[in-house]
Structure formats: structure tokens, C-alpha cells
Amino acid sequence: MSKVRVAVDVGGTFTDVCIFDEDSKTMRVTKVPSTPHDPMIAVMNGVERGEIDLKDVTLFSHGTTVATNALITRNFPAAALVTTKGFRDVIEIRDGTKDDLWDAYNDVSGPYIRRRDRFEVTERIDFSGRTVTPLDEEEARQVAALLKRRGVKTIAVCFLNSYANAAHETRMREILEEEIPDATVSTSAEILPEIFEYDRFNTAVANAVLAPLVSGYVNRLADELKSGGYAGDLLLLHSGGGSMTPRMVEKYPVRLAASGIAAGAISAKHIAQQCGYENAVSLDMGGTSTDIALVAGGELRVTKEWQVEYGHPIIFPSIEVLTIGAGGGSLAHIDIAGSLRNGPQSAGADPGPVCYNTGGTEPTNTDANVVLGRLGTSLAGGVKQLDKALSEEAIKRVIADPLNLGLAEAAQAIVSVANANMADAVRLVSIRRGYDPRDFALLAFGGAGALHGADVARELSIPTVIVPPNPGVTSAMGCLLVDVRHDLSQMYTGLASAADAEDLEAKFTALETEASARLRHEGVSDENALLQRQVSMRYLGQWRSLTVPMGTGAGALEQAIQTFHEQHEREFAFSQVGAPVEIYQLHLAAIGKTPKPSFRPAERSVGGPGEPSEVRKVYFGETGWVETPVYDRDSIPAGAKFSGPAIINQLDSTTVVPPNTHAEIDEWMNIRIHIEEVAK
Amino acid sequence: MTKAANAPITTLDPVTFEVLKNAFATSVDLMSEQILRTCYSFVIYSRDFSSALCDAEGNTVMQGSGDIAVHVGTLHFQCKAVLEQFEGDIHPGDVFAINDPYRGGTHFNDVSFIRPVFSEGEIVAFAQNKGHWADIGGSVPGSFDVNAKEHFGEGLRITPVRIWSKGVFLADVAQLLTSNTRAPEQAMGDLHAQSEATAVCEREILRLIDRYGTETVKTALRETQDYVERTVRRRLESLPRGTWETADYIDVDPGKTEGLVPIKIKLTMDGEGIHYDLVGSAPVVETFLNSGYGTTFSAIYAGTKTFFPDVPLNSGFYRAVTADIGPEGTVVNAGWPYAVTGFCAGPYEKVMNGIFEIWSQIMPERAMACAFNLEYLLVGGRDARGDSKPYFMWYDWMAGGWGGRASKDGSSATAPVFGAGLAVQPLEGQELLSPVLTSMHAIAVDSGGPGRFRGGLGIEKGGTLTDAESTVMSYCCDRARSITFGIEGGLPSIPHGVWLNRGTENEQFLGSNFSSVPVQSGDSFIRPSAGGGGFGDPLHRTPEEVLEDVIDGYVSVKRAAEDYGVVIEEVDAEIDDFRIDFNATTEKRAWIAANRQNWLEEDPAAIAEAYKRKEIDMLDVIRRHGVILDWGTGELFENTTKQYRELMSRRSAQHWG
């Protein structure tokens, strides 16, 4: 058997498996239903369904929602917080803000550890790291004994100003480990050595509550794969767009909190690169929501402001993904003032769109696409039949009649509003970073992305749309495309002009020593290890900082400052060259390069898409009803070129190629759609 | 509904209208996003700012989705003031600044920047944002002078002024403004950040004009307002008609004898719209707790909007919600030159909470009792930790409890209703910047007003000055006497107010409103924020819910018995083993029910004496007897008590079965 690489991405409904064959350089995919009570069952089912012999697997990578789900359901083993006297409520007070500013009945969810499980000890360190009050060891032991009596399994130790001096936290950990040897202890300075107690405490608390659960799952799966014959390390995708092994998951489980979300964005970056685009925006549209991510200058945007639920920040670098409530199942309706709206309410999987005939009565985007002929009445190769008449009735009743529109016009109006909402969201992620969407390619995937991609691109004046070969499992492929990665940081506040180059170098070197140790622990060889320095800076007096890359050697800081001015100018349309710049944090990305699949380009033929499987009437906003050819995606060869209008069907998706566009199949089997008037 | 009644409201096609309406919102949110990322004032960074797109007449078309409530409904006044002032002399590339509370502004710290958007030589729209500068000059650091009676000396009053002229920065004008603050570099940073942000909105509107044409965009600007007005009026069709009245109170007017200061609110719904009448509210007080017309309207809009959470905010909303706030010279319509900077702690929240109380009757399923009062503590002086002894400002505000609701407890530790997005600051950041060591930041036990649904819990926060020189402390709050109230039988929470050196020989209760109290290294201070008022009779709360509150330490064993009549036995607190004594609970509840009406009629002087002798505590005095004292000395406020008992009788006692 040939060697294969396997990626498994667990979603709410389906677990997707991507299998890359190293000999043929081709990829095949399979889908099995997810098993939320024990996600491992679906993973192993996927292995079986994919006919994978684990002995042939050279790399097994995995995106998991185990951590995300545990945080949302608050389903943790007995956990406790030990903190500075007077401050046990820091994680409950948060910053006090509400997510929903106006609905007084819509509250922020409660903290990960209840008040009754939060304990205080006497100790205090000030802003400079000086001990104001020594740790009361007797009290610390009493708390440890109490936690033991309460049967606590995992503990977060969070003391004020520990970012400046972690001695008390470390000592508290020792005492806890002496008294309760089998408990897991997370200290805040070790998890996140950064200022701001609420962010640091909550990140450490999230780490603590996830520790037994997530590392338990990961170790169980690793053992299962090992007994099946897999000889390598299980790689877990983390929110920073890298992966880690079970050995590091034990210590930093919180990094898996957004394991799944990053996968689609990583695929987008890969596809853009493959197609020669430095800049791309991805539109991953599913049944209830759309994820949008930005690739700029070949890199994904990373944010540290991230959370699973509002009010509970997890401060680790995470791929920036904007999720909006627009999907195939989003409901169209007329609001109380008579205006046409689309989403964010969704028919979801239950009752689903009206045309599924599973109880839905309100029209969705899917229904509009069916009425317009964009979506056929037979999906997934005939497995699912859609009832067009039901869609027509619903759209007529809910939209067409009240607005005095014809049926097709009403359906088109629904689709147009959905497209405009997605375009607004893309605008928000791109323009707010100072990018012009016209310089981007749009990557459309997810079950519904390719239905809307070309129209959204036109709305944004984006000239090119790329639809990957398997839009429905594009996310899973992302798991195959990542490196082992750790992100370390250290506070450093002071004017850049006054920074001591040697001191700065020493601090970076210390971070690099720690980072190298982590990579070695992961089994990364030195030649595959890559360390990247970054620095966060701001104009003196500003509150937010910008993170820019920093080189090594003489002049590195000056260069970084120059980059900071430039980036500030691009993102915010102004800079203040000459104004004092403050360094805020040092960062180090430790990357363990992992071999990537090298896809083999297909031979390009010259010619058209072949014979359509059908020709049907499809409605487009600019032309009305047009006879439109429908092609089977599998039968269109690489190199084929054709003009819209056309519909392309495949098992997991439908692509709309509207009038006045030109499509081609590239050597990676992507469909590229060029929008005519934009190209001009 | 008939088909005609449901006809489209727009002369544009429905898609274009929806697309433009949403694009207006995006243009404003982009402006907010940029401010958040480039601002210098930590107050702005904590989200005390707002953004709006206004039409050519200055009417607001869209406000930011994350805007602070207190700015709602003031931005159009500011835009119209600029229009009045510069009519015929406004050009592409101009930017104007204004903070004038006598022309619809909030207070001097809130500085607006306004940029016209031109198409084909005419003004199509204005982009505006308003942010709270940490200091705008005046006699007190942070520009909150409680004792100010007139605005002179409160801070710099900026009447409409041009900062950019046809794209040229007027450095001299900008310098004049920023030089009148305690942090000129910071102010200049914010001036740039805010002005540049208006350009983001302008760019988006120009893109829309390019795509859809000037006329279409102008129509959409107008019809987006019509849309909101229509939405509100449609909602009213299913709501009752009638008149409702209430009053809420500021603690005291120092210019008069003790006694609560009334703010009267009457609401009439006649099927046409929502009409408020504030006539009969008290004359201006001799502190800065007065409100200009702009902020009174803001309180009215924001309070009402709480019951229409999904309706976008624009001038269409302001057409459906109207108000008569009476002649100038009152706490709700102060007029020049009365001091109004403290409106936010004074009339603003009283109007909002009064409106909550009224709408709790109109929409009982969204009912909510009173929330804690906005509070600002300012400690300013020289930081002696370093040789240069720089100026420091420890400018702190807390979260607190919101009122109990018809179906659940109040929200604990939440930003003030003045702005539910206003973030409290991380204390590690404060410690880095000021010589104040925080002693605690914790939930205040028993601070939630008892009720069938308990009020949310307040916070307690304090600190000790370590190395400070020439330092003074000021406090802007209220409700040390007009205590956060319960409704439908619910009980009050706790009073606001600052304690200096609590638990020492030098203990002093400074109250909820004071200015420039000298403090020195070694002094400590602490103050709670109130919880929310209770909703419904506390004797009807299930003993099991009270037990859970006791295990989490939200309610003490003592108050569980005194406020809820639930007797709880502590068996082994280490493992959360507390048990309800059901027999004792039945007995205790019967005893409370039999006596509580009488407790509210006991001689207040005797209650005050018992408090001084420490026979009863503060919560007994308030919740059981409805008596209001100086919480430091125990001195009885006779008039205030009489007024407060009337309120408790109406809001609480009359609902006890």
C-alpha cells in the first residue's frame, strides 16, 4: 500500500476525513456522522470508512471541537481557582460589559468556575514585582487541604501581578502538588505571562478546566491510533493555525479551544498560494453561518482578542475569522415596517429549508436558489430530493405577495440581500484593515459558498472567484497543511528609542531557549525548527498596539519601528513618524516544519467543459430566465474554458457561473470564475 | 394585517433599500472600529464613545451598534449646531469640533468631530463621532467638579469650531483646544484619531454614491429614518394606550434642606406615538448633577430603546418618541450657565430607571427593577514613585447590579445602564500607572435587592495610596439616600458612598458626591456599587434558590433569614454543606409577613438611635424600616425618610399579600 496522510475534522453534524496519497499525489475524502457523546468513535469510523490502514499513515492530524464544546456546556471535572485575597471575583466581574447592549434580558454567560469553587490566600506582589505581602504558607496549605477534601481534580492559580513576578504562583503550585499529587495545576504566569488580570486569569482558568478532559481525549485517541499501527505523533490543530502533539496538549489544552475554526482559513491560504494570489478572502458558507477570513500578503490575519463565548477571553494568537449569521438556511422575511430582511435567524437542520419537506414553512436562501433554478431539485447525487413547489409557495406567501413582486423577482431579491450582507461582512474584515477588496481573490467553499461566490465578488468588485475541488470538505484539508507551532510572549514596556539592544536581545534569547525546548519536546528536529521574532508597538499614549515582525542583528529594532509606522498608515490612514513609539510586548513564534502534501498538477487540456448533463432555465438578476447548461464537475477536465451562464454540480456543492463571467478549470482542479465587468 | 398596511415603505426597490440601510450601519461601525484601535484616552478605549451618520440636515440616519447609551440621541443636536453656525461656509475637507452641552451636547469631556460628505458640490451627509477625553481642563483633574454651580471652571467649552479647513489642518486652533487640558499630547492624539475616523465613514458613503448615485443615497438616508419611525409606530399598535406616571429622585440639593430631589416622568401612549412629560421636575440643584436638554432626551430615548432592543437608532426613532421637558432652569433642562457635567450620575439614570419602571407595567414580560448608579472615583495628584513625580489620575468606575426581572434574577457585576458596553479597567494597568494598591475588587455580599427575583450583585473596590503627593479625591455618584429600589414587592439594595480609612480610628463616610478631599500616602478608601433592586416579594423566593445564593456567598446566612425568611443551618461550610431548616423558615416567614408593614411605620428617630448603638445594621434600617441616615454618623434625614417610605410603600409594601 502507498503511504497516506490523514486529516480528520470534527464538525457539529459531520466528521470529514481527507486522505492524501503520497504516491499518486491525489486526495480523496469521506464523511461520517459525528458522534458528540464521544467524538473518537466518529474519528475511528472515518478511518474505517476511508479504508485507511493506520500502518500506512505517515501523518495523522486532527481538528477537534472537544474543547469548544466543553467550554460551551460547562461540562468540566471538579475544578477550583486559587487567587489573591480580595480578588476571587475577577473572573465573574470580567470587564462588566454586555454583548447585547440593549436587550436587558440577554445576559453574558457565567464564569467557568463558580464562586463556591474559588479560594483566596494572603499574598501580594506590586506592579514592579516587589513583594508587598509574602505568601502565607500556612493558609496556602489549608487551602490545599480543603481542595483535596473537596475532591478537586484541576486547579488554576492566579495571583495579581504575577506577570511581573511569578514566585508566589510557583510556590503555591508546589504546595498544591505536594498536598494533592494527582491534581493538574495551571499557573497564570506560565499560561500567559501578560499584564491585565482578567484576561490572564480567564485564560488560565480555561486551561485548568479543560486540562483533564482534553488531554484525556487526546491521549485516548493517540493510544487508539497507535494500537492500530500508526507510528507517528497525533497532531492537533490549534487556534493559532498550527498544530501540537499530545505532549504539549497536556500543558496547554486551552490552545485547542478553537481547533476547528482555523482549518478553513488555513485551506484558504493554501489555495490562494497555489493559485498565485498574495491576497484572498475566504467565504466558507454553510447551513447556518458563513466564516470569513482574510489572507493578506500571503499570511492569515491573527488576533489575540478571541473567545468561545462573549466575556470569557482566551488570549492566545488565533486566526481571525468573522462568523456571520448568513447560510443556506437563513430565513427571509418582511419585518414589521415592511422591509425585506434576510437572517440572522436560520431554519438550521431542523426544520430546514421548506423544499426539504421536513416541516419548514418559512423561505430560506436555499429555497430561493431552488426557485431560481440555481440549485437543482436533486442533491448529493440523487440522495436528497427537493420539493420546488413548496419553495415557490413559501416565497410567494412570505415575500412576493407582500412586496407586490413576481415569484422570480422575489426569490432574486432574497438572494441579493443575502449576497449584500456577506459583502458587507467582507468589507468589514478587509476595509477595517485598510485593504481594498478589489486587490483580492474570493475563495468560495462550504456547502453553499459556490452558489453565492460570484455574486458576492461582483458586489465587492473582486475580479476572480476560486472554487476548490471539494468545497464541502475544504476545512478538513486545512489540517494537513499546518506546522507545529507555539506562540510565546513577554511583557516589555518602554520607549523604543530608549530600548537597550542587549537587554532586548537577552529577552528574545530567553524566549528562544524556551521555544526550542518546547519544539524538542514535540520531537521536532533542529533543522526543521524555525523561530520568528515579533514585537508589539504603539504610539506613546495609545491603548492598542500593532504587532510587526522583527529581525535579528543590528538595525532590527529600527526596521521594526519603520514597519510599525507603515502598518499604522495602512490600517488607519495615518501615522505619526517622529512621535515616540512604545514597545509593549515581545513575541516569538516557534515553528516546527511539518512535511506538506505536494499536490500534483493535472494536465491541462484545451477545450470546453464537454456535454452538459442537462439544460434548464435559470433566473439571473441581470438577464431574467436563461437556458443554462448544467455540467457534472467530475467530467470537466483541467484546462476547460467556458462562459456563463452555467451551473456545475458535484456531490457536496453546486457552483453558479453567472452571465458575463468566464470560467476555467485550473491545473489544481479549482474552478476559477473571472468577472467580466470587474476585469475591465 | 391588510396587504396595503404591509406595503413596501420605500420608493427604492426593496433590495437597494436593505443594502443601503445595512451599508450605512457598516460605514458607522467601521468608524467606531478605527477609533477603538487608535484612541489615546483610556476612557474612549473603555468604549465611552459613539459614532453616527447624519443626513444633510443633521438628522441621525444610523448610530453605531456598539455605541454608549448616554450619547444616543445627542449626535444630531451637535450636527445641527455646526450647521447653524457654519451654514453656507462648509466645504469638502472641513472637520468641525464641538462639545457644547448647551447646544445638545453631553458634558465637556465628550468631544465630537464632524465631517461633511459632499457629492456634486452639495452636502449629502455628515460623519460624526464623539469620545470622552480623560481631561478637558477646569479646576479638577478629570474635569468632574462636583461643587461647580456654573460651567466656568468645569472645563473647556467648545462651541462649534473648524479644525480642518478644506483639508488643511488648523494647528493653531487644535493647539488652543488641547492646551486647555491636563494631557495635551493625549488630547491631540485623540483629536487626530477621531478626525481620521470620520474620513473612514466619508469614504464608504462616497463609494455608495459612486455605485448607486447621489439621489438614491439621499433617498435611502431619508427613508432609513422613515423605516425606524414606522417600525416603532407599528409596534405601538399592539401596546395598550393610556397614561403612566412615576418619579425618581436625586439624593439632595445642597442649596436646600435635606430631602430627595424629584424628577417626574409621565408617559402617554395615544396610538400615535410615545410622549413623555417631565414638567414638575425640581429646579436646578447647587451641584453639577443637572442635565442639559440633550442628555435628558438621550435618557428618554435610551430608556425607551431598552424595551425595543432590536430597533436601530436614528432620528426616525426620535420622531416617534417625543417629550416635553419643561422650561429651562430645572434639573432636566438646566440651560446656560448651570453646571451639568454630573448629569450622568444625576438626572440621566433617574430618567432611565423611571422609564424602566413605567415600561415594566406596559411590557410586564420585560420588567426590570432599578439598577445601580453610575459612579466615578477620581484620585489625582503627583506620583512619587519616581523622581520626576509625574501627574497621575486614578480614574475609576465600577460595574454593579441591575434590577431583578419578571422571570429571572438581575444581572450581577454589569456595566451601568448609562452604557452597557463601558468596560471597567484592569487593575494591573491602574497599578502600573498610579501609586494606588488595590485592596479588593470583589462582589459585595448581600448587595442584591431581595425579591422573588433578586437584584444583581454590586461590587466592592478599594485601594491604598502608596507614594502620592498633593493628591485629592473626588466622587461623582448618587443614591446614598435615594437608594436603588425594588418593584412589585421587591426590596432596595444598598447605598452608594465612599469610606475613607474604614475600620480605623480615622474612619469617615464621605458620601456619594464630593470634590477635592485631600488624601495622602497610607490613606485607604473603599466603596461599594449598589446591586439591583429586587423584583417581587422576597418571601416568595424558593428556599432552594436562597440556599444556592448562600453557598456561593452572594447572600449571607443572616440576610437569608432577615430578608427572605429562609433559615439556613451551616453544617460544614468547607464542603458546601448548608441545610434549610424548613420549619424555622415557615415560622420566620409568617413572622415577617405579620410584622413588616408595621416596621415601615416605626419612629425613624428610634431606628436611628438603634443604628448608632449598633443594635441594628444598615440593611435592617433600609430594607426593614425604610429609614435613611447619614451612614457615617447615624444622623436621621427626616424629610428624606418620609419621602423614601412613601416610595417603598408604593413600590414594595403594597404588593405584599
Features:
heterodimer; A: 680 residues; alpha+beta; Nucleotidyltransferase, domain 5; Rossmann fold; 5 domains; six-stranded mixed sheet; 17 helices; B: 657 residues; seven-stranded antiparallel sheet; 32% helix; 21% strand; globular; disordered N terminus
Would you kindly provide a written description of the structure presented here, covering whatever features stand out?
- The complex is a heterodimer of chains A (680) and B (657).
- With 680 residues, chain A is α+β, with helices and mostly antiparallel strands.
- Chain A folds into five domains: 111 residues, Nucleotidyltransferase, domain 5 (2-Layer Sandwich), CATH 3.30.420.40; 132 residues, 3-Layer(aba) Sandwich (Rossmann fold), CATH 3.40.50; 104 residues, Protein of unknown function DUF3822, C-terminal domain (Nucleotidyltransferase, domain 5, 2-Layer Sandwich), CATH 3.30.420; 110 residues, Dna Ligase, domain 1 (2-Layer Sandwich), CATH 3.30.1490; 66 residues, no CATH class.
- Chain A has 17 helices and 35 strands.
- The model of chain A has no long low-confidence stretch (mean pLDDT 90).
- Chain B has 657 residues and is α+β, with helices and mostly antiparallel strands.
- Chain B has a seven-stranded antiparallel β-sheet with strand order 2-1-5-4-3-6-7, sandwiched between helices. Chain B has a five-stranded antiparallel β-sheet with strand order 14-15-20-17-18, with helices on one face.
- The chains are: A alpha+beta (680), B alpha+beta (657).
- The interface between A and B is large, with 75 and 90 residues.
